[in-house]
Design a protein that fits this description.
Elements: E1 4-6, E2 9-14, H1 17-46, H2 81-87
Amino acid sequence: MTGKTTSGLKGHKIVSHEEWLKARTEFLAKEQEFTRLRDELSQQRRELPWRSSIADPTAAGRSLRSPSGSGCRDPPFLPSLIAWSVSHRCVT
C-alpha cells in the first residue's frame, strides 16, 4: 500500500499510519518553529520606536482644512456625505 495514489487525489501518496505520523510530526515541528519566528517578529514590530504625530508642525491643521484653504472641512466618505453637506455648509 505504500506509495500508491488514488485517481481522485493525483499526486497524494497513500502511506501507512507510521509513515504518516512521522511526516506529520516533522511538519508539526516546522509549524511550531514558524509560529515562534512569527511571534518574535511581531514582538519586534511592537517594539519599534514611534514617531511623533506633531513632528511636522504644519501637519496639525491639514486634516481640518480643504485644499483650497477656504477653511471648510473636507467632506467625509459616503454614506454620510448628504447629512454632512446639509449640516456643514461653508459660505465663502
